[in-house]
Structure formats: C-alpha cells, structure tokens
Amino acid sequence: MGTPDFAVATLEALVQNQYTVVGVITAPDRPAGRGQKLHESAVKKYAVAKGLEVLQPKNLKDESFLQSLTELKANLQIVVAFRMLPKVVWQMPVYGTFNLHASLLPDYRGAAPINWAVINGEVTTGVTTFFIDEKIDTGAIILQKECPISKKDTAGILHDKLMTLGAELVITTTKLVQENKVVAIDQKNTNSNKMAPKISRDTCEVNWNHNAELVYNHIRGLSPYPTAWTTLHTSDDTLYLKIYDVELEKIAHNLEPGVIVADKWSMKIAAKGGYIHMLQIQLPGKRKMAIKDVLNGLNLDPKAYVA
C-alpha cells in the first residue's frame, strides 16, 4: 500500500526478492496540470508495468473494496507513504500490517518527517518499521536503521537516501515476519516533542529575522518540495520568489535582516549572524534558474529587500 516514488523502491525490492505481491493498493488517479489530465501514482505506474493487480479505493471502508481486499488473501500488508488505515483493513492479514516510516520513531511522527528533520538541523535520522495500530505512527517498533544528515543535504537528497535504506529495511523486516522472529518494542510509554505535521504554505515562508543557520536549514528542508518562498520588494514591484538552492555564510555584519547585497553575478540576503547566498530561485511564471541568469533580467534597485 503506497502512492509516491518513495514507496516504489520498496515495491520494487519486494518484487526483486521474489515475494508474491498479490495486490497493490494506491491512490485513485487524479487530474493534474493545465489540461487536468488524469495522473497515475508512481506506485500504480510501476505495478501496472509489472502486471500486478491494482486497487484504487476512494474510501477504505467501502464494502466493495473490503471484499476485493479479502479476496486477495494476503497474509501480510506493507504500508509505505499511504493513508491512515481503518482497523478492519490493518487487522485483516494473519501476520498483520507493518508500516515504513522515514524517521527514528518516536521522533517525527506525522506526515513530513524528512522535511522537519532537515528544517530542525538534525544530524541523524533514519527509518523505522512498525506494526500499525489505532493511532498515527505509534505502533510497536520492529526495526530501525540510522542515516546521517550532512550540512548540505536537502530534503530531496535525504528523501532518496531514506527511500533506499527503507526498502532494505522492509525486506529485512519481511524476512523476520516470515521466519516468526519479530521482537517488537512497544511505543505506548514513549513520547517525543519532535513532531512532523503536514507542511502548509505559511510554513514555507522564510523569516529573515531568524539566525542565518536556521534560515539555511529551513530552506534546504523544503527543497525541492514544497519549496521555501519569500517576498521581494523593489521600487517598482512586489514579487514572490521560490528558493531552491542556497549557501550559508556565517559572518558578523551590521545589516538589517532581509537586506540584499548583489552584483551582476551574485545575490546574498542578510540574516542574523550571516548571509544566505541565493544559488537557484524561481520568479513568478518562470522556470527555476541559476541566480546569475535571474539577475540578468531582474531590475534590482539598491533599495530592494525581502521580507
């Protein structure tokens, strides 16, 4: 059970390790793009290419879906980046249902663990497999594996690392289940103040009054998706910029947060205790571009600033 690219790596690993995948459950096709053409999930595309049976329920409690799921006769269900399951679904297989989560639980329970680990400047994260229960990411832990986060890792880079690591952990977990060797660790008395809620547009706005390192972590933790943004104010216009790639310069200065220092080839923005060097940004209605290409066509007056 899964939908995005992150889940494809696990499905592919199960197929390559010759497990019998009796069915693939993924999101319904959705309209996307200017033409609003129906878009298939990454998991569906892979499953169809491999000739696997695909179910795309809108409602996980729908009687016809539950009947179809029962008829698959799966003895184990594996969930990667899907929806919260009703009890009737996760209790169905004889060996239960386990989930792959992209953090070291109980840290970063929630929808966006990869983004928040980078935003918060963590140096280590990982992946966890656990049995699903009634709540979100609280079930008994089966296995965990750590993954370092470098200072230059974006959410996108970390996503790819954890996608591969997670697929490997799922195979190891599946073997343990198959051999009846699972020793799960209860999370009931384990809490964490590090959470990973869904990211909103407001979350993505850059606060230039923060310390430069916090700003840097915030931007890379949202790159390439859903992308940090800021408002550029010039004497002629106000523009919303998406920020994809930056570098951090820690240095003392006397400039106000949001002040722009630029020439024909480079642009940096003042924050507390340093500067954020813009490397790749996107203007409204344009594609993302290297900063030198942006500056060639942007009338950036000396009083321009971001806020």
What does this protein structure show overall?
- The chain is of the alpha+beta class and 307 residues long.
- The chain has 2 domains: 5-178, 3-Layer(aba) Sandwich (Rossmann fold), CATH 3.40.50; 201-306, Formyl transferase, C-terminal domain (Methionyl-tRNA Fmet Formyltransferase, Chain A, domain 2, Roll), CATH 3.10.25.
- It has 9 helices and 15 strands.
- The strands form 4 sheets. Strands 9, 10, 11, 12, 13, 14 and 15 form a 7-stranded antiparallel sheet that branches. Strands 5-6-7-8 form a 4-stranded mixed sheet.
- α1 (5-16) packs parallel to α2.
- The radius of gyration is 22 Å and the shape is elongated.
- The two termini are 42 Å apart.
Which shape, going by the Cα principal axes?
A: elongated
Summing up helix and strand content along with how strands pair, one would put the structural category as alpha+beta
**In total, how many beta strands?**
15
Main beta-sheet strand count, sense and barrel state: 7 strands, antiparallel
**How are helices and strands ordered from N to C?**
HEEEHEHEHEHEEHHHEEEEEEHE
What CATH architecture of the largest domain would you give? Answer: 3-Layer(aba) Sandwich
CATH topology of the largest domain: Rossmann fold
Tell me what portion of residues adopts beta-strand conformation. 15-25%
At the first level of CATH, what is the class of the largest domain?
Alpha Beta
Rg result: 22 Å
Oligomer: single chain
Number of helices: 9
State the fourth-level CATH superfamily of the largest domain: Formyl transferase, N-terminal domain
> How many angstroms does the end-to-end distance come to?
42 Å
Uncertain segments of ≥5 residues (pLDDT<50)?
A: none
Helix content: 25-40%
Domain count: the total is 2
Average pLDDT figure: 96
